[in-house]
Amino acid sequence: MDRRHRPAPGLPGLIEGYVPQRGVPDELLDAAGEIRPVWRNFIRHVAGLAPDELHRRFARGDQYLRDAGVFFRQYSAEGSDERAWPLSHIPVLLEEAEWRTLGEGLIQRAELMEALMADLYGPNRLVAEGVLPPALVAGNPEWLRPMVGLAPRGGHHLHFLAFEVGRGPDGDWWVLGDRAQAPSGAGFALENRVATSRVFSDFYAEAHVHRLAGFFRTFRNALQELQADPKGRVGILTPGPLNETYYEHAWIARYLGFMLLQGEDLTVDAGRLMVRTVAGPQPVSVLWRRLDSLYADPLELAGSSRLGTPGLVSALRHGSTTLVNNLGSGVLETRAFLAFMPRIARALLGEELRLPNIATWWCGQAAERAHVAAHAERMVISPALSTRQPIEDELSALADSQLPPKDLAGWLEREGAGLVGQESVGLSTTPALIDGQLLPRPMSLRVFLARTPSGWQVMPGGFARIGRTPDAKAIALQRGGAAADVWIVSPAPVDAASLIPTRGRELQAREGALPSRAADNLFWLGRYVERTEGTMRLLRAHNVRLAETGDPRAPLLATLAPLFRGQGIDPEEGIPQGLIRTLRSAVASAGQVRDRFSPDGWSALADLDKTMRRMAERVSPGDDAARALSALLRKVTGFSGLVHENMYRVTGWRFLELGRHIERAAGMAATLATLADPWAPEGGLDLAVEAGDSVMTHRRRFAVTTSRETVVDLLALDAMNPRSILFQLDGIEEQVRFLPGATASPMPDLMRLVLRTRTNLCTERAEFLDTDALWRLRSAVWEISDLITETYLR
User: Fold this and answer.
1) Contact between 735 and 758 (Cβ < 8 Å)
2) CB contact set of 50 (below 8 Å; sequence gap of 6+)
3) In 10 A of CB 287, how many CB atoms?
4) CA distances from 118 to 158, 329, 392 (A)
5) How far, in Å, CA of 639 to CA of 658, rounded?
6) What values do phi and psi take at 785, rounded to 5?
7) Alpha-carbon distance 152 to 158, whole Å?
8) Which of 31, 213, 547, 777 might form a disulfide with 497, Cβ 3.0–4.6 angstroms?
9) Distance CA 372, CA 378 (A)
10) How far apart are CA 783 and CA 766, in angstroms?
11) What's the confidence (pLDDT) of residue 10?
């Protein structure tokens, strides 16, 4: 047996089939086929676990990711969908000394990126002196002319960077790509760490693995220190829920305690960037941009953008806001720049690159073009101005489909200025457990660097992308790749870092500002969930009676028709599509405020949505639908109870409660006006009590059968009944009193309307609260809703 491929002594079974690819370095085994020292204890630990135990541990890590709501957005020809996070449970282990050397090279590269950015948007000396071809700058869509000459507040263009690195055939690390636009993955790296440490909790606790929390704590403190205005805020700018890494944006915002903002949340007033909140505009001093530069300001950049904030560039010119990273930093990711990095380093830093990047030739030069043509069989040829990486999907497709082998030289001659050739090298492999077998799979690492007052800091770990197959071109998550944690192992114990401030620094409790858009989504989340529940109760009552009579045209069922028709509900469907659309609207609203929503709440809502859509495929009207709706009601009330019990009582919760109270009050008023009308068919009063979930309460309170007076008294005027209209108006008044400016003098219109509506109902008697009065009451509730929107949500 080849020494390189022999199983390690004492570890039978686990690595017997582990055969590294020839000519490619492997993270687990050295050139002699021996397990590397950093892996030995871990592999011995894993080998000591029975297959069933290992499966249970992996399931524990997956369960954590599901409970936390971790997902990535998968794109396809049919659209996009949220997919479970594809965790590769075996971490990547690297020695502390090796990581330190890698980090030193990346810190130099980060300094180079800063100097390059300053030159491209400043004196442009590199172009003037012939270090960079003018076409790669002037013709680059990521080089933004409005940013030329704009000096960033604080003196730095870049604050957070990521580098894609891989181990080359010689065993040394190479840079595969630079990430300066809006680097993603840091939040996923931390989630990978939590999940993986739960899988190997007993081993991890004693493994001397460097923690990640200290990196985030230091960067959070650095951002807070960048604030120019003591009243200013730190925000994270996201493109929104349809972005493939939106989960990470929401997670980072929640983890660090920053506002998650979309472009429409922001406005520029007199050169100051402000966030629209329910308490009025408030300044934003630091904005961590997770949005591509071109879309950040439709006024001066891409005019078609609906994601950005008009005037953002103007605010940067006024120096009122620090952007992480500055607009235009996407130009640093240009693939053709890799061909010139050694020359750029000598020109700007006076140093040689400590960490080389993948060999790259720009085909706009004759000698380089000839070299690429002569060695095309080991090249990946791709767009020069692309900012994606050569290991990602469409680049290999370009090499396969657009290179005409008959006239390669002629094609390069014609198109060379727009092309680069990059050496096609195999990535190092790392262990991955696939179908119970430990196998080598290609790997790349994404390493993160943050600027701090003392300089660049490297995250002691990162985000590894692992191929599911031996094909190195398929490590991207969109192509079926997986993600793994990266453990930096020290020979000595490491500090257990956390986000808790160090001793001597005060804990400052400060309620975060609530953007108007977030308040609007919470308000409508409350309304949509309550509307879903109220509609389900009416539908269940409808189907119970349909099962009893078998006649969908019975007078009582016909009386309910206007209540359903007004919501686009067809009661003749078992689980109506209109009901599904209402719940989907609730899910959409919740998706807009993931940073303010608990993972448990989101999981419960998503489970309700999934269950309802599944039931709709097989439930028929009548008794079958009634039973299904009962099950769904238990789920929706469970969700409401979870949110009510777990959500912190800040302003956002008040808007959620206002939405629930308004929808319940309006729905109950319509139900009573319809079913307690003197001309309503027999059985209408009992149906109203049933829809109001108050059957037992009515029996306790009234020793008689239902009458119009008892039903109206219980469902409209009883302040102790959580289903009554008066109870909702009490709740509306209570929540409105806590809203900004609601109790100012003179009394605002909203508070005046709430008090008038509540007082009128309080002084009413059941026998005088007729059908017309109930419809007027419903109109007053809608007027309260409109005033809330006008006052706080626009």
Assistant:
1) no
2) none
3) 28
4) 10, 10, 29
5) 17
6) -60, -45
7) 9
8) 213
9) 9
10) 23
11) 42
10 Å Cβ neighbour count for 688? 26
Q: Indicate the helix (H) or strand (E) that contains 662.
A: helix 651-675
Per the structure block, which two tokens stand in for 59? Answer: 């399931």
The DSSP code for 357 is B
User: Are the C-beta atoms of residues 484 and 91 closer than 8 Å to each other?
Assistant: yes
Q: Residues near 686 by Cβ (< 8 Å), separated by ≥ 6?
A: 706
Query: Which residue's structure tokens are 């609207």?
Result: 585
Under a CB-based contact definition with an 8 Å cutoff, are residues 105 and 90 in contact?
Answer: no
Non-local CB neighbours of 494 within 8 Å, separated by 6+ positions:
208, 209, 210, 211
Check the CA dihedral 245-247-253-259 and report its sign.
positive
Under a CB-based contact definition with an 8 Å cutoff, are residues 482 and 442 in contact? Answer: no
Closest CA to 712 of 699, 729, 722, 698: 698
Helices marked H in 163-204: 186-199, 201-204
pLDDT given at position 71: 77
Query: What is the residue type of 735?
Result: Q
Judge whether 215 and 463 are in contact, CB under 8 Å. no
Rounded to whole angstroms, the Cα distance separating 41 from 356 reads: 32
587 CA to centre of own chain: 14
DSSP 8-class letter at 209? B
What's the start-to-end Cα distance of the chain, in Å? 73
CA–CA separation, 745 vs 184, rounded Å? Answer: 48
Give dist(CA 571, CA 112) in Å, integer: 66
Residue-level pLDDT at 478: 64
Amino acid at 366: A
What's the number of CA atoms in the CB half-sphere (13 Å) around residue 773?
15
Q: Give Cα separations from 770 to 557, 664, 764 (angstroms).
A: 22, 19, 10
Q: What is the DSSP string of 427-481?
A: PPEEEEEETTEEEEEEEEEEEEEEEETTEEEE-SS-EEEE-SSS-GGG-SGGGT-
- Cα–Cα distance for residue pair 600/704, rounded to 1 Å: 43
Structure tokens at 133: 């071809």
Mark the ranges of the chain whose per-residue pLDDT is less than 70.
1-14, 74-81, 388-406, 472-480, 497-512
Do 589 and 530 touch, CB atoms closer than 8 A?
Answer: no
Does residue 255 contact residue 192 with C-beta atoms inside 8 Å? Answer: no
DSSP 8-state class, residue 4: G
- pLDDT of 512: 60
Query: Under 8 Å CB-to-CB from 733, ≥6 apart: which residues?
Result: 754, 755, 758
Contact, 449 vs 110, CB < 8 A? yes
Please give the DSSP secondary-structure letter assigned to residue 672.
H
How many C-beta neighbours within 10 Å does residue 92 have? 24
Nearest Cα residue to 588 out of 660, 525, 531: 525
The residue assigned the tokens 């205005």 is: 229
Q: How many CA atoms lie within 13 A of 118 on its CB side?
A: 16
Contacts of 528 (CB under 8 A, 6+ apart): 582, 583, 585, 586, 589, 659, 663
Q: How far apart are CA 643 and CA 640, in angstroms?
A: 5
pLDDT at 377: 85
CA–chain centroid gap for 482, Å, is: 18
Return the amino acid letter for 714.
Answer: L
Report the distance separating Cα 92 and Cα 359, nearest Å. Answer: 25
What are the CA-CA distances from residue 588 to residues 80, 529, 566, 576, 593 (Å)? 14, 11, 21, 19, 9
pTM: 0.89
Tokens of 423: 């050496």
Alpha helices in 17-122 (DSSP H): 37-47, 51-68, 96-120
Find the length of the chain: 794
Query: Looking at 157-247, which runs of residues are DSSP E strands?
Result: 160-167, 173-179, 233-237
Query: What tokens does 723 get?
Result: 């289903």
246-256 vs 213-225: helix crossing angle, rounded to 10? 80
